Amino acid sequence: QVQLVESGGGSVQAGGSLRLSCVASGYSSSRNWISWFRQAPGKEREGVASIYTGVLQTRYTDSVKGRFTISRDNSGNTVYLQLNSLKPEDTGIYYCAAYCFLAESSRCNYWGQGTQVTVSS
Predict the structure, then answer these.
(1) Fewer CB within a 10 Å sphere, N or C end of the chain?
(2) Distance CA 108, CA 62 (A)
């Protein structure tokens, strides 16, 4: 059974930074995508970033490129999302999901409980 636990959310002012963590258990870290999504109030969930645990690859949605960085530890079971230069529009609940890519949320079967990020202007 795959379990994902996110942490690291909080409230910051615009321009601030946060580091989110996603600890995965029961997850095969070999050659799989693991992704971060977010959902703002009243909006659909959107993909933010993905990392491939085989030959290392990362992908980002355009709105976060240059500001967010996805990474993983050596075991591949903890994935981080560094959020820099935060904007109020980055506010939302951030979720990690296993075995799926940021553009394919409908294919994600394993989700964490989410961590709240609030950015004030």
Answers:
(1) N
(2) 21
